[in-house]
From TrEMBL, chain A:
Principal location: endoplasmic reticulum
PANTHER family according to UniProt: ER LUMEN PROTEIN RETAINING RECEPTOR (PTHR10585)
UniProt cross-references to Pfam families, sorted A to Z: ER_lumen_recept
Membrane topology term: Multi-pass membrane protein
Keywords: Endoplasmic reticulum, ER-Golgi transport, Membrane, Protein transport, Receptor, Transmembrane, Transmembrane helix, Transport
Organism of this sequence: Photinus pyralis
Protein name, UniProt field: ER lumen protein-retaining receptor
One annotated Gene Ontology cellular component of this protein: endoplasmic reticulum membrane
Length: 211, 10
């Protein structure tokens, strides 16, 4: 474990908590893409099937929290507060993300076993899972500031993981190209948002995308 | 037997 990965995981945890609190407190999931949240639930389910393999208390605890929180979020969006779910703007065709991710996982992986292919699928899936949410923000042309804080924390987590991979390569000579390439793609997808967040939201303005 | 790559990261 290193500081980059720890802060990255905590940023990830913060993002998930911000989102859950936003939906629970405002009793509304307006502006939130349910499709992205379903993709995240798929990501954690397919990645943490190795939950029984004990790595550390921290590892097991975080996996359980991520799985539970992702399903709780999907439940809140599609069941409890489904009246506030914005169908009209959450229209990204997720099949164009799931299928290519799965096919790519079958073609490019470290080991052609069920667990390893599913882990690889979760890595590819996670790198594009935020697209429906970013697409929804671009369609509505704006995002509540709490939603942009969620996106900033979520985007920062994988950006910090890149620093973790650099650190691990230089100190432990350990690297995983699949995770690194997907993590770079994932972080690049946030760049446009990061720019808007830093230039606008941090100055107290609302996140308005140029229409 | 290719040893199963361990994924110790979340």
């Amino acid at each position: 474990m290193n500081i980059f990965r720890l802060v990255g995981d905590l940023s990830h945890l913060l993002a998930i908590i911000i989102l859950l609190l936003k939906i629970w407190k405002t009793r509304s999931c307006a502006g939130i893409s349910g499709k992205s949240q379903i993709l995240f639930a798929i990501v954690y389910t397919s990645r943490y099937l190795d939950l029984p393999n004990f790595v550390s208390m921290y590892n097991t605890l975080m996996k359980i929290v991520f799985i539970a929180a992702s399903y709780a979020t999907v439940y809140l969006i599609y069941m409890k507060f489904k009246a506030t779910y914005d169908h009209n703007h959450d229209t990204f065709r997720v099949e164009f993300l799931v299928l290519p991710s799965f096919v790519l996982a079958l073609l490019i992986n470290h080991d052609f076993t069920v667990l390893e292919v599913l882990w690889t699928f979760s890595i590819y899936m996670e790198s594009v899972a935020i697209l429906p949410q970013l697409f929804m923000v671009s369609k509505t042309g704006e995002a509540e500031s709490i939603t942009s804080h969620y996106l900033f924390a979520l985007g920062s987590y994988r950006a910090l993981y890149i620093l973790n991979w650099i650190y691990r390569y230089t100190t432990e000579d350990h690297y995983d190209l699949i995770a690194i390439v997907a993590g770079i793609v994932q972080t690049v997808l946030y760049c446009d948002f990061f720019y808007l967040y830093i230039t606008k939201v941090l100055k107290g303005k609302k996140l308005q995308l140029p229409a | 037997q290719v040893e199963e790559p361990d994924h110790d990261e979340l």
